[in-house]
Structures
1.
Amino acid sequence: MASKVSLKAGKGKVVKKSAAADEEEGSMAVAAKFVKEWSTWTMKKAKVITHYGFIPMVIIIGMNSEPKPSLSQLLSPV
């Protein structure tokens, strides 16, 4: 199980942030969340497409090659 990493403010100077900086960080957080969700969705779809498309792709490529094998020759393990 992955552990969460937390960053705590250490000892040192306290820097006050402006409202514009807070807004910019908020928009960056939203953008990062959007990219993470989009990439997760894309990878899930790619996994399904690869899962169901690999064998048909191999059969189609095999049927279009020279010499032309029969379908039973393509599907047999020997």
Note: The mean pLDDT is 79.
2.
Amino acid sequence: MAFTLYSLLQAALLCVNAIAVLHEERFLKNIGWGTDQGIGGFGEEPGIKSQLMNLIRSVRTVMRVPLIIVNSVTIVLLLLFG
């Protein structure tokens, strides 16, 4: 397999899919990354853990419908062109 733009986009899609399927109650809470941890006070900068949790929540919220569409297009392209 050659390193092409399509393979790079497919790898990025797989990473976004991996972020999207992480569930807080089933997986993230077991490793200590639940929603109740990392809450700072007013004026404090959020730590890396809370920023990553916000990123995971945002990806799950915003990218739900676009991921379904992009995954469907990727599957069709793979079926048509191998």
Note: Helices lie at 5-20, 24-28, 48-62, 64-81.
3.
Amino acid sequence: MLVALSPYAQFQPSCFHLVKMGFVMGCTAGMAAGALFSIFSCLRIGIRGRGLMGSVRKTMMQSGGTFGTFMAIGMDI
């Protein structure tokens, strides 16, 4: 038996979309946490200027990538 779909029908997102959404959410949260922790630790030990920016950028990318990967895996499960 055929079921008529209305123009307002909701569809389930695909697995790839869920994994992508999990990675983006995790990357955003990880980068925010990395920024807070690295700025605090760099200022505490006395790093200023370009050293501060380089260290903060590196820590944000590392924590964002790591947390994003784990969130993507979690969304896949």
Note: The chain has one domain: 13-74.
